[in-house]
Amino acid sequence: xxxxxxxxxxxxxxxxxxxxxxxxxxxxxxxxxxxxxxxxxxxxxxxxxxxxxxxxxxxxxxxxxxxxxxxxxxxxxxxxxxxxxxxxxxxxxxxxxxxxxxxxxxxxxxxxxxxxxxxxxxxxxxxxxxxxxxxxxxxxxxxxxxxxxxxxxxxxxxxxxxxxxxxxxxxxxxxxxxxxxxxxxxxxxxxxxxxxxx
Amino acid sequence: xxxxxxxxxxxxxxxxxxxxxxxxxxxxxxxxxxxxxxxxxxxxxxxxxxxxxxxxxxxxxxxxxxxxxxxxxxxxxxxxxxxxxxxxxxxxxxxxxxxxxxxxxxxxxxxxxxxxxxxxxxxxxxxxxxxxxxxxxxxxxxxxxxxxxxxxxxxxxxxxxxxxxxxxxxxxxxxxxxxxxxxxxxxxxxxxxxxxxxxxxxxxxxxxxxxxxxxxxxxxxxxxxxxxxxxxxxxxxxxxxxxxxxxxxxxxxxxxxxxxxxxxxxxxxxxxxxxxxxxxxxxxxxxxxxxxxxxxxxxxxxxxxxxxxxxxxxxxxxxx
Lengths: 198, 320
Known about the structure:
The complex is a heterodimer of chains A (198) and B (320).
Chain A: H1 11-16, H2 21-41, H3 45-62, H4 72-92, H5 100-103, H6 114-119, H7 122-126, H8 132-141, H9 146-157, H10 162-169, H11 173-197
Helix pairs in contact in A: 2-3, 3-4, 8-11, 9-11, 10-11
Chain B: H1 9-17, H2 21-28, H3 31-58, H4 62-72, H5 83-107, E1 116-117, H6 139-142, H7 145-156, E2 162-163, H8 171-183, H9 203-220, H10 227-235, H11 244-255, H12 261-272, H13 279-285, H14 291-303, H15 310-319
Antiparallel strand pairs in B: 1-2
Helix pairs in contact in B: 1-3, 7-9, 8-9, 8-15, 9-10, 9-11, 11-12, 14-15
């Protein structure tokens, strides 16, 4: 979580103490963060909202047994990441009677098609005022592997320390270092490249 | 003295993303490393900016989503006799007691000192309906409705100290006093509506007034008529050294569209020369009342000897 949730204010600890206000503030403030997180991983808007709701409900239900072992932001992001991994698994396990465009998450198909994400998002068709830069970023993000996308999200967007990311993802810190750098380099090149073509 | 070994790009990026003093020193000690770090810093800042724009674009329906989540969690109807009902009943009793005490204080004519309530998230309610087409004479501000919406959302859910009592005489404290009241749903005192009402406000005071004016715009849609005057004063200072509090105010004003392109370039250039304006701080500064803003406030309070003012203390304690 960017900003205020870096502090020690733990909404689940507050819930345990009988105070729902902090959790409610967390929901109102960070809903957009989670929607953005899932969108950057490759979800469309409706899916991102579903997953965001799922994460908040899971967090809420976990409150009675919750024991703070790490920063709350790390914990919440782990729940979000698990929700995304589960969703991808469920989608991948769907019988092949569904169309590929419905069933396949953007990272599952081999060569990533930068336009696929845009094409399957009905909101894009609703408005031509979509920021060109945002669209370029989303297209660029869809070209990252899931491993690089998650590391970029946690290190660059959510500002988690490399050691925490390594621990969360169960990979060496050196791997985090190289993935972050490669993700930044690739995104930067993609954004620049699109900009030159535009 | 050990010989300097250039940091590779991966290490430089790590040093930028999780600033460690030792790595920072190593970067600063070498012109080549510093130059490369600067390039990477700009790359990261640009990517974060794009992500921020993207999130702002998605912010539209998020209020409804949050409401759905609350309906499914904290506001779900509980079974009869649930334990939380007992807690709610206890809170009601406490609130009634507090209300009775307050009423007694008023009736006995006692003037309350500044008191600071526990920092529950603000229930701030806008005093006017917010409309993206709110008339405003400052056309540059009008252009930034989506950004304003994101700021509005952040402010509505912001947790700020609940400060009672009369306006303090210390200027910095008075601005903070007004800010907490406004965010918690009260009107901005009329003396602060137009512009900083006292002669020769300091730059820190100007920065806080800009934040106040932008809060008012975000929460109520009331146009900050003399915002340009305040931003001009900050940008036209001859020594060109801006504190972080000033930078955040200008950066926020820029995000609301209140600076023209030339002024925006100026702010970005000044930002890049401010050592503490790291990309992390920059990302945090994009939200009103982010943790980096509280750090900047702490610096400002120290530089103006206002740390011992009760209202300033309350704000700073709140940031911990």
